[in-house]
Write a structure and sequence with these properties.
The complex is a heterodimer of chains A (149) and B (131). Chain A folds into 2 domains: 1-31; 33-85 and 101-138, Immunoglobulin-like. Chain A contains 1 helix and 8 strands. Chain A has one helix spanning 12-26; strands spanning 45-49, 53-59, 68-73, 76-83, 94-98, 103-110, 121-125, 128-134. In chain A, the strands form 2 sheets. A 4-stranded antiparallel beta sheet of chain A has the order 1-2-8-7, with no helix packed on it. Chain B is mainly β and 131 residues long. Chain B contains no helices and 10 strands. Chain B has strands at residues 12-13, 24-26, 29-33, 37-43, 52-57, 60-65, 76-80, 86-92, 103-107, 110-116. The chains are: A mainly beta (149), B mainly beta (131). At the A-B interface, helix 1, strand 1, strand 2, strand 5 and strand 6 of A face strand 3, strand 4 and strand 7 of B.
């Protein structure tokens, strides 16, 4: 049984560590397949599951929503956009370090057929893009009532 | 000529032990200098302005950011390509920086820091007069 980091057994100090351990177990989980678009394409994503469906999360700091372009087509979700230096290197500036990459990006994800990709919703907060993709109604877990015989 | 594309690079882990539990990572930075100031931009996605700390002690600039965990409640990781953690990085800066006037803001997970140079560090034109 997975000990969820939101459980009463963990203190706030352990929450991050618990999340990191869970992410370690899910790291490059070979059971997950995005189709043609493999790892190594920007942006890197983490996929989570909740009672409604899946969440796809990507870190794209410094890219305002108007520079992000999300598209769905059948089972495919495409995340594209462009990152600029956010004002770094103004005229006459001399660089000491330049580590933050700039440029265009585009990545497509083929999602499981149990997901209702058409109804995906996205939000962007503090540089993190979260795309929520609900399960199709037919794919949602259904409780089976047990009657006493 | 193809447009430049961004690559995926794994996060660099901070090696020193932290007092807080959880792995920390070094944010990518751009550092550049203009006539009046040193500028720093650091990628710290997941950090808001209340969770970032900047200190200048003894010529060492420390930037730290705590990542918000609220959005990880009630969800279960299924597949992961990138690490999540707090951010920390330190830089030696010369004493030409006026620590009192350092200014910062967090925009979309990027820390923008302006470190103004102390007056005496600015390039000073020396007037040459004719004899």
């Amino acid at each position: 049984m997975t000990i969820r980091f939101g459980s009463p057994f963990t203190s706030p100090f352990d929450r991050l560590l618990s999340l990191q351990r869970e992410l370690d177990r899910a790291f490059e989980n070979p059971g997950w397949d995005f189709g043609l678009s493999g790892r190594g394409v920007f942006p890197a994503v983490n996929v989570f599951q909740d009672s409604e469906g899946y969440l796809l999360r990507a870190e794209v700091p410094g890219v305002p929503p108007d520079k992000l372009n999300l598209e769905t087509h059948g089972r495919t979700l495409t995340i594209a956009g462009e990152r600029d230096s956010n004002g770094a290197g103004a005229e006459g500036a001399g660089y000491h370090r330049r580590e933050r990459e700039v440029g265009k990006f585009s990545r497509s994800f083929t999602l499981p057929s149990s997901l209702d990709v058409e109804n995906a919703k996205a939000d962007y907060k503090h540089g993190v893009l979260t795309v929520r993709i609900p399960l199709k109604a037919a794919a949602k877990p259904r409780q089976i009532e047990v009657k006493a015989a | 000529m193809t447009a430049q594309e961004i690559s995926v690079r794994p996060k660099q882990e901070v090696v020193e032990e932290q007092t807080r539990a959880g792995r920390a990572y070094q944010p990518d930075v751009d550092i550049y200098e203009t006539k009046d100031s040193l500028w720093l931009k650091a990628d710290m996605p997941g950090v808001d302005e209340k969770s970032v700390q900047v200190r200048l002690d003894d010529g060492v600039l420390t930037i730290e950011g705590s990542v918000a965990l609220d959005d990880y409640q009630n969800v279960s990781p299924v597949y992961s390509e990138y690490r999540v953690g707090n951010y920390r990085r330190r830089f030696t800066v010369s004493n030409h920086i006026d620590g009192e006037r350092i200014q910062g803001k967090m925009v979309n997970g990027v820390l923008h820091l302006e470190l103004p140079k102390a007056e005496k560090a600015k390039p000073r034109q020396i007037a040459i007069s004719a004899e």
